[in-house]
Write a structure and sequence with these properties.
Helix content: 25-40%
CATH superfamily of the largest domain: Periplasmic binding protein-like II
Oligomer: single chain
Bound molecules: 1-O-pyrophosphono-5-O-phosphono-alpha-D-ribofuranose
Structural class: alpha/beta
CATH class of the largest domain: Alpha Beta
Order of helices and strands: EHHEEHEHEEEHEHEHEEHH
CATH architecture of the largest domain: 3-Layer(aba) Sandwich
Strand order of the largest sheet: 2-3-1-4-11-5
């Protein structure tokens, strides 16, 4: 039987996921000593770990080349949901928030506000729910710069400890939604490899406690 393939988001979530898989009883030595390798076996080789960027985890799971994935709810909210969300893994906790320069009366006035963000879909949905007209400018990193450079009135971004906002004279205007890491599955895999996926999800659920 070919191994069950799970795509992990590289970086912060990768470490927490590997810690959880180890706690669930899988030998993760190959991943911990991976070097530049991107596909690695864990346990007795019954599972294969694929290391990818967050949005690519979703792509691989949607196309079914990976059966499972671990990805942040932020990426799920931004990139759509043609897959099944199995479980909240309880780590990678942060939130989406609307932020602006400290002391700004963000909602004052009637002009359309400009929002800089790496997450245009999340920002659009949030302001649509408020019936507010906005202009979105897509930024690829350190979105906090945009209001400081007066490119935008505010930002929609991820806030974890709040340090980045604080150190740059910005503050949260409104919390949008809480985020954490999720275990996702390809919908066909969920039918074809139901037993294996359920067993793995069970072990991860127990290790979470
Ligand atoms: C995220 C986010 C903020 C920062 C918030 O960026 O975009 O800039 O973390 O964290 P804090 O509230 O603990 O300060 P990340 O570090 O992921 O880098 P990125 O800009 O490359 O996405």
């Amino acid at each position: 039987m070919k191994p069950l393939r799970i795509a992990l988001t590289k970086g912060r979530l990768e470490k927490d996921t590997i810690a959880l898989l180890e706690k669930a009883g899988f030998d993760c030595t190959a991943v911990k000593e991976k070097g530049r390798k991107l596909i690695l076996p864990i346990g007795n080789g019954e599972i294969e770990v694929v290391l990818a960027k967050a949005a690519d985890v979703i792509t691989y799971v949607e196309y079914g080349v990976c059966d499972l994935g671990v990805v942040g709810k932020d990426t799920i909210l931004e990139n759509g949901t043609s897959f099944f969300e199995i479980m909240d893994l309880g780590f990678g906790k942060c939130k989406f928030a609307l932020a602006a320069k400290k002391g700004t009366d963000f909602f004052a006035g009637h002009h359309a506000k400009t929002i800089a963000t790496k997450y245009p879909n999340v920002a659009r949905t949030f302001f649509e729910s408020k019936n507010m007209d906005i202009r979105i400018i897509k930024i690829e990193g350190s979105v906090e710069l945009a209001p400081l450079l007066e490119l935008s009135d505010g930002i929609v971004d991820i806030v974890e400890t709040g340090t980045t906002l604080k150190e740059n004279g910005l503050e949260v205007i409104e919390n949008i939604v809480n985020i954490s890491a999720r275990l996702i599955a390809n919908t066909a895999s969920l039918k074809l490899r139901k037993k294996e996926i359920e067993e793995l999800a069970d072990k991860m659920e127990k290790a979470k406690e």
